[in-house]
Fold:
Amino acid sequence: MEQKIKYKLRPVRLVFYLLFWAGVVFLYDMFRSYFLWLFLLAATIFPLLSVAGAVYLCGKVTPRLQLERTRAVRAEVVLMELQLQNAGWWISLNSRVQLAVSNTFLEHSAELTAQLPVALHDDTAVKLPFQAVETGRFVICGEFFGIQDVMGFLECQKRISLSKELFVLPRQEAGGRTDITGFLSGAAEKEESAQKGNDFAQVNDVREYVPGDRFRDIHWKLSARQENLMVKERSAMAGSEMVLLLKLTGNTAQAEQILEFAWGLGKNFIEQRFPVCLLCWSQPEFAWEEYRCGTIQELAEAYCGIFGTALSERVNPKAEEHMRNCYPFLKSYLAVGAQDGSVRVQMTEND
Structure:
């Protein structure tokens, strides 16, 4: 699809140049100098070539955006490379790319403008440092590309579609070294008691309701869109897994503290060869999302999944009330939340 180009005149510069041009005409009329005639000819032709060249060049330049990597840790510097691929035989001393940087998880956004020249039938690149002071999923989009003619009379603008994402995770030392000895001993008791039955079950399929199914297994949201009741089928899960429930709040600072604390806690469990399961509420699905982690890499992927949904859709103060219905076989879990201005973790009985 052909891109629509908009044109914007710079009237102040144009007026000053017209006054200068009128002065050259006046001098030529007075002195009738051959040199002044050549100068007047150049002063008339160059602006036309400059404007025509900018219009031509705007359709020949293709912006590109590259990220050094797609994951980083908080406060780490990541380089963004902005490239201008010029397929035309003209130059520009001043072009700009309008970028929008959004943290889709914490729902913050900002704008920045990158300015650089356009080389003659060649690529021009500039590297921009990006440092995130908060965790989340950052989307960097290029929205507009503008180019000025060499003499600066006209700016040509067109919409562009550039998009890159960067997941910023908590620092490796985030959350500190939490003493998990008590939690591990509690988990051992839970695993021993689970030998007589299932201590936790996960949903692995959805089917139609048949007489005898438990009402607490009915998938009410899906049933509302179907003609028949739908039931969640559960499969038993090994008891040697620590369940961390993330009680996120709408306060972005508190939410980050909870996530950083849970990161450090989960990392400590994994280093002790004890896998964890993160539970994070999803308001669109009206259910707990499960992220199972046995390695630090899986923990990082789990956080990328959590950051994929906005924080406002992760908050439900009454979500914990659904734990018994969602996980009837789960005996206990660790609830990580904010209390009295600080992050607390508590072993909670699921009753």
